[in-house]
Amino acid sequence: MKLVLIVSLTIATPLVGLADWMLTVVQPPEPFVRMGVSAMNDDYIAGSVLADGEQFGKVAIWDRTSDAPVIIEPAGVEPNRASLRAIFGNTHVSAMWGDRQGGRVRAISESGSGDRAAIWNGTPESLVILHPNSGYASSTIQTMSSAQQAGFGVTFSGRQEALVWSGTPDSVISLHPTEDPNRFSSRIDAMTESNQGGDIVRSSDR
Q1: pLDDT digits (tens, 9 = 90+) for 139-189
Q2: Which residues, in sequence order, are bridge partners of residue 111?
Q3: 39 CB burial (10 A radius; 0-12, 13-18, 19+)
Q4: pLDDT of 135-153, one tens digit each?
Q5: Interatomic CA distance for residues 50 and 55, integer angstroms
Q6: From start to end of 41-81, where are the E strands?
Q7: 127-153 burial string, b = 16+ CB within 10 Å, else e?
Q8: 82-115 pLDDT tens trace
């Protein structure tokens, strides 16, 4: 049986690397036999759960006052983009802000397959696909602020570009270098309300 380990760190003396820490083990409630954590904040935990007898896990969230996970795994056709006609699998939450979650869903559709950037608000029905309407084969959310989401998209030619959204597919902005863009790969992994951080790699450095 797999247990969830939640580690709380308080840096005591950063210069010498000392730290006080507390380990909390969360026992999976029935009918779940496995739980894993992929993102968290002060109020909520997000990750995956596997029920007894099932082959595949599902994405879930739970708050720190309850042991009962809430499944937010989407199912079937995503209603806001009927043209995609996607069946979802391999869903992943990688970022949280308050009671909202961000990450990706994997779409298997008439038009191909690939990760689709997505956000939730605690329920499967709240799913919003942020995948750009054109130009990208896949996308994912890596980090969030109160009003924006950021991560990266992969173009159909295979170039990875840093992207920022403001809650809708049409709001996407590429922060990828515009001068000789094919020489670079970029992504965003952290953000505040006004700044984004990540990396830009030249092709010769990879």
Answers
A1: 999 999 999 999 999 999 999 999 999 999 999 999 998 888 888 899 999
A2: none
A3: buried
A4: 999 999 999 999 999 999 9
A5: 8
A6: 44-51, 58-63, 70-71
A7: bbbbbbeeebbbbbbbbbbeebbbbbb
A8: 333 445 556 788 899 988 899 988 766 545 567 8
